[in-house]
Amino acid sequence: MDLYKWSYKLLPLVASELVADCLALAREIRALGMRASPGRPGRLRSARYAGSDDRPGSAARTLAG
């Protein structure tokens, strides 16, 4: 999220495509972290998160279309 936060703050200076790429990357990393956490394993599926299936890289495929 730090990469996205700083790219958003620098939005007048950087291209909006870079900000969008940073957001997509932050979302994928967040999904990976939530899947790896030992807390509640089904929370992504219960929240109907787009990349919530159990296959590795599924969030990347969903974000790419």
Topology:
Elements (H helix, E strand, L loop, with lengths): L1 H8 L6 H21 L6 H4 L11 H7 L1
Helix pairs in contact: 1-2
Précis, in short:
The chain is an all-alpha fold. The protein contains 4 helices and no strands.
Q: Your description of this structure?
A:
With 65 residues, the chain is mainly alpha-helical. It has one domain (2-64). The chain has four helices and no strands. The two termini are 22 Å apart.
Q: Features of this protein?
A:
0% strand; elongated; 65 residues; mainly alpha
- Which term fits the overall shape? elongated
Q: State the secondary-structure class.
A: mainly alpha
Overall tally of domains: 1
Describe the largest sheet: none
Based on CA atoms alone, the radius of gyration comes out at 13 Å
Query: Could you tell me the mean pLDDT?
Result: 74
Pattern of helices and strands: HHHH
Q: Give the percentage of residues in beta strands.
A: under 5%
Please count the helical segments.
Answer: 4
Strand segment count: 0
Catalogue the unreliable spans. Answer: none
Task: Kindly report how far apart the N and C termini lie.
Answer: 22 Å
Share in helix = 55-70%
